[in-house]
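Hi everyone, sorry if this is the wrong subforum. Our group has a chain we'd like a structural model of before ordering constructs, and none of us has done structure prediction before. Sequence below.
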Amino acid sequence: MIVAVLSATASAQGPARGRTAALARKDRKIATREIPRSALRVRVAYDEDPPLFEARLGLTAGLSFLSGGEMIAGAPSTVAGFAAPSGSATIDLRAFSYLGVEGDAQYALAASRLDASGGTRERQITSLTGALKGQIPFGVPGNRFTPKAGVGYGVLTMTTRLDNAGSVTNETIRLSNPYLLFGMEWEPFDRWVVWTDFTLGFSISGTAQSGSGRIDAGTARSDRFQAGVLYRFAPRFLGGMQYVRRTADFVFPSGGGIQSTKLNQNSMVGTLLFEL
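Answer:
Right subforum, don't worry. Here is the predicted structure as tokens:
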């Protein structure tokens, strides 16, 4: 980190010199009106001993809104929005302040609701991500800015249970893909942290399964954007709020089954972090 130190000298002129010097010795105070600009000096020092190891463990809980459209057995089926309680566990490990590993495990469950066909539909989402990253912290105490970049791998699973007059069908769509990670963390004040990151996925693999039938995806990818504000309310604890948006795109061969689907998940969650 960069530390800026201000030092100043002052001199008094005329008959008040002795009186001013005595007050300065007694109270250790110098009136600002007696400090000329030329007496201000700035000394900058660089801390070359970053912490060997840092870790943050986090929990989130809040509400997600799931929406998207899909085609089942070649017939379009527009899926209305689902409100779903959701939560996640996160880990952020840093070595020498410049290298790190971070991961995220998320779960959301939407309760049963009426479907356009007259049945009920229940949906749940799970996702796992992990990334290796590099980061460069710089700034002054109480105002640190840390950009980061990395590569990772993620798995997302969407399961839908459709009950139509007692006939139950379970549909599972799963994708996995590598991704690039970009983000930043900013500490504008001593106790406040503002952060954001974005993952950009690459198409790699996905499957759709309805009953006993299974289809491999032609292309599948998922992305994630998140941003939040944290407040350090205790020496090792931070709390705050964050917004998370996850999207998933699947394109399947046109031979049958689920041909295409897109999932949007928007979440607003509370966050609690513990620093080791």
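For your construct planning: Residues 2-46 form one domain. Residues 1-48, 71-78 have pLDDT under 50 and may be disordered.
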